[in-house]
Every structure is written in C-alpha cells, then in structure tokens.
Write a structure and sequence with these properties.
This protein has 227 residues and is of the alpha/beta class. It is built from seven helices and ten strands. 35% of the residues lie in helices and 23% in strands. The strands form three sheets. Strands 4-5-6-8-7 form a five-stranded mixed beta sheet, with helices on one face. It has a three-stranded parallel beta sheet with strand order 1-2-3. Helix 1 runs parallel beside helix 2. The protein is globular. The model has no long low-confidence stretch (mean pLDDT 93).
C-alpha cells in the first residue's frame, strides 16, 4: 500500500494545486519520534517531495494516526488541519472530516475515541518507551478488529440525524469523509436543500480511490498499482 500511495503522490497529485488527506494515512502513529521508521520515512519523504513540487497538502487526524504532531508536519510539509475543515473554492463549499465523530450509534467506540483524544491520556502514552508504545498500538488495533467482528451490526455509516445536523451547521456544504470504508455518494435533503455526502474508500495493496475537483465537478477516480 505504501508503494501505491507513493506512486499516487508522484503521479496525479503533481497535477493538483492542493491535496487533502482525511485521516488514517498510517495504520498507527505512535508519536513523532517514530519518523525514522523505514515505512514512515518513505511516506514522509514522498509527502515532502510533493510539497516541495508546489502541492499544498492538508491532513486531518484519523482514529489510527491521531498522534501526528508538529514534527511530522515539519518533516512532511503537511498542514495539520482542525476537524471539521471548511474548504472554500471560488466555485463551491466543501466540509471535510475523518467521519468517526458522527458514528455516534457505536457507543463503545465513542468511549474509546474520547479517551484516545484526551490530552492527558496522550501525554501519558507518549511518555512511554517507543517499543512499548508500538506494542500497545498493535494490541489496540487487534482489540478494535475483534470488537468489530463480534458485533451483530457494527456501525458502517454515520448516524443519520447527527449527519443532517452537521450539514445544517456547516451551511449545507458538500460533505467529504472517510472512516467507514464504504465508498459511496449519498444524497441528503436537509431543510429542503439537496446536499451531497461523498465517502472515500479504503486503500489496499492494488488499488485505492480519490476525489478530484476541477472547478465545476467533483469526480471519483481509481488509482491502481503499476504493472
């Protein structure tokens, strides 16, 4: 998957003025002192190359890489964005988010999310030795997978009423998010106004999807591994 993403950065991204990454860029991020990890360093270098080529890169935190911090930003050339992020172009308004905050029907997940986003918890975690943090991150990831598999109906979409409230609060802007790994385009009617919600898919070793805005139309594209 790293090679696929690096090819993407060196390919279509170079034709774009801006790139927005909506979280979970990394499987886990245990702290900015892990920049020298081989896979991390490859991604950071690819981002830096794209940034130095003139692409402005904005990045939101996901539920796996919520510890991305200022050292990562300096090394990669990315801007760390606050969620939700309002993206205004001369032609249109978008609102960007990772998406997990609106999966409010999954109460267990929201409890874990609140703990992981707590500054005191993060400070205590980052104070641990790096190898211990790596082991804990692997354990948390395994627990998350097991928890999802054990649920009769795991949360696979955002809570409908909360999403409509979110769209209303952000001026009925076109909403783009990830997290659910259920790529689709949804039509919402909020206060009689038609609002689109675009969901990004997960990236795998062979393929991933991305959205492109040409000033008139938002379109979905597939990016596949080179043969």
């Amino acid at each position: 998957m790293t090679t696929l993403f690096l090819d993407f950065l060196a390919g279509p991204v170079r034709q774009a003025g801006e790139l927005y990454l909506l979280g979970d860029l990394f499987e886990a991020w245990i702290g900015d002192d892990d920049l020298a990890d081989a896979d991390n360093a490859r991604v950071v270098s690819g981002l830096r190359d794209a940034s130095e080529a003139g692409v402005r890169i904005g990045l939101l935190h996901g539920n796996r890489d919520f510890l991305l911090g200022p050292e990562f930003a300096r090394a990669s050339g990315c801007r760390l964005l606050s969620e939700p992020y309002l993206l205004s172009t001369p032609e249109w308004q978008f609102v960007l988010a990772h998406g997990d905050a609106l999966c409010i029907d999954d109460l267990a997940y929201q409890q874990v999310r609140a703990q992981l986003r707590d500054p005191a918890w993060q400070q205590a975690f980052l104070a641990r030795p790096r190898e211990q943090r790596r082991q804990l991150a692997a354990q948390m990831r395994a627990q998350s997978i097991a928890s999802q598999q054990a649920k009769d109906s795991p949360c696979s979409d955002l809570q409908a009423a909360a999403t409509d409230d979110f769209l209303r609060a952000h001026g009925y802007a076109t909403f783009i998010h990830g997290h659910t790994h259920q790529p689709a385009t949804h039509d919402h009617i909020v206060d009689g106004i038609h609002v689109e919600r675009w969901v990004l898919g997960d990236w795998h070793e062979e393929s991933g999807d991305y959205l492109a805005w040409d000033g008139e139309t938002l379109t979905r594209h597939a990016w596949t591994a080179k043969r």
